[in-house]
Amino acid sequence: MSAQGARADRAAVAGQGASVATRRPRLGPIASKVAFWIVLAIFTLIFIYPFIWLLSASLKTTTEVFNNVLIPNPAHFENYSELLDRAPVLNWAWNSVLVSVLAATLQKNLRYDFEESHDDR
Questions:
Q1: pLDDT tens track of the chain, all 121 residues?
Q2: Cis status of the peptide bond prior to 74, with omega within 30 of 0
Q3: Is 17 left (phi over 0), alpha (psi -120 to 50) or beta?
Q4: DSSP characters for the chain?
Q5: Are 27 and 69 within one domain?
Q6: From 31's CA, which of 13, 39, 58, 86 has a CA 20 to 30 Å away?
């Protein structure tokens, strides 16, 4: 094969010989960043919306929960005081904090002990 034929083959493989109609237009760096942030914002809203809905539902009465109004009018903050009266939520929260702190402390101490025992190599 001649050098010119090999060069033509490499150009065709690399896409240099492709026609203008088959090339995809490239976004500029600013346009690609804007597109990225738009997609990121859309996915953020998709993932955050259930938490917003839960907060909204917690401020409604039981008959208003599924009325498709996101911001309740009026907001019923007494739902939280009723929750604290009916269930030991603060005790549950304290237990969660205690278990988390103990687990993190234990993990840190075990990792330190493991690293110390393997420093003799």
A1: 555 555 555 555 555 555 556 776 677 888 889 999 999 999 999 999 999 999 999 999 999 999 888 899 899 999 999 999 999 999 999 999 999 999 999 998 887 666 666 665 5
A2: yes
A3: alpha
A4: --HHHHHHHHHHHHTTTS-GGGSPPPPPHHHHHHHHHHHHHHHHHHHHHHHHHHHHHHTS-TTTTTSS-SS-SS--THHHHHHHHHS-HHHHHHHHHHHHHHHHHHHHHHHHHHHHHTTT-
A5: yes
A6: 13
- Domain holding 79, by residue range, is 3-87
Query: What's the chain's average pLDDT?
Result: 83
Residues 101 and 53 in one domain: no
pTM more than 0.70: no
Q: Which amino acid is at 106?
A: L
Residue 35 CB partners (closer than 8 Å, separation 6+): 27
**Are 26 and 68 members of one domain?**
yes
